[in-house]
Amino acid sequence: MRTPIARAPQDTRGTWKTYLALVAVLAVSAFPLYWMFVVATSTDAAVNSIPPTVTPGDQLFVNLHEVFSMQNVYFTASLINSVIVAGVVTATTLFFCSLAGFAFAKLRFPARNALMFVVILTLTVPTQLGVVALYILMGKLGWNGTLLAVIAPFMVSAFGVFYMRQFVAHAVPDELIESARLDGALTLRVYWSVVVPAIRPALAVLGLLTFVATWNEFQWPLITLNGTEYPTSMVALSDLASGNYVIYRRVLAGALAATVPLIVLLLIGGRQIVRGIMEGAVKS
């Protein structure tokens, strides 16, 4: 019987070429943010100069004051509305998607696989196809022009249900659920006390992705909230960029103000995203 030969641990450190490529990708990805900051801090003369300036100016607070003081844009209200909409949609998506994912993964009921197939099938349907029907439905409910029209259609997502179903199936052992049932726990108690603590990394990933996607949503809020005093930040930015003459320093100052919350959120929760993705990859 042959004695297994011990292999030396492989060196997983990258070469200088790898780091150079990563730095190049980072620079290309971060340049639009840097250029937005440069324009947001510059004057009209600096923005229109040839060659364009590539260093930040000192007019950031002046430009932000102009943006927030414009009477027909309601930028302050739009940021508050975006926080409300993104927060409510994220909270409801986490609750409903995790509950549905738990049901599809661990509960037995008729047509479970067929219903899951329908959920996955909806991912292939472009959202633009349902805009007219959704607008008519919101009109019949009297919600057009209100935040309810932006919140209600996105309280649950097919991707969230599928993602949570996959994570629950691998992260929560059947034995753990059976043990909780033997202790007298009902289904909702099993979900809250057993499933939720086990899927916290996945909840963090889905929550961050949902918040960012809802914050950046433009088409549907533009349709249902356009012309009202209750826009979201993306609609307010489109108002800043409308007109025969666009003042780009105002537009990008507003874009900077609308981007800062997302950057802060990603800096705080970015580690949770990586952790959730890595745990999902290891479990699968």
Q: Can you describe what's shown?
A:
- This protein has 284 residues and is mainly α.
- It has helices at residues 16-40, 44-47, 60-69, 75-106, 112-122, 131-141, 148-151, 158-171, 174-182, 187-198, 200-215, 219-225, 233-240, 248-283.
- The two termini are 35 Å apart.
- The relative contact order is 0.14.
- It has two domains: 16-58, no CATH class; 72-283, MetI-like (MetI-like fold), CATH 1.10.3720.
Fold blueprint:
Blueprint: H1 16-40, H2 44-47, H3 60-69, H4 75-106, H5 112-122, H6 131-141, H7 148-151, H8 158-171, H9 174-182, H10 187-198, H11 200-215, H12 219-225, H13 233-240, H14 248-283
Helix pairs in contact: 1-14, 3-14, 4-8, 4-11, 4-13, 5-8, 9-10, 11-14, 13-14
Give short descriptive properties of this protein.
mainly alpha, MetI-like fold, 14 helices, transmembrane helix
